[in-house]
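REQUEST ID: PR-0412
SUBMITTED BY: lab tech R.K.
PRIORITY: routine
TASK: structure prediction, single protein chain
INPUT:
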Amino acid sequence: MRFKIQFRGKEYEVEIKEEERGVKIKIGDKEFLFEKEKVQSKGFFLEKRDFSKKEILAPISGTVSEVFIKEGEIIEKGQRILALSAMKMENEIVSEWKGMVKKIYVKKGDVVKKDDKLVLLE
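STATUS: complete
OUTPUT:
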């Protein structure tokens, strides 16, 4: 979609394009990309959340087959946290946020139910 706008007495040509990664807006010779938020089904926010603390919950019931992080470690968004075995499948749980691992609620071999707390980040 293309159109012209006038701002503070100057006219600008604006182009808006929806792309796979998000929405690209071109104003004159400058381009801006607004990326779509990636939603992962491997971790969830709590209904009421404190943004200084981020809890990662079990997306499914299963057995913790591996823990890839340690308390006190700084982790990146998208980093592997742990693996859950369920229905003969290995499911990797990744972090939705960057932060410090404040508490790990589970260990290898623990059985968890859907929505059980796995990890607390700060």
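NOTES: The mean pLDDT is 86.
REVIEWED BY: pending
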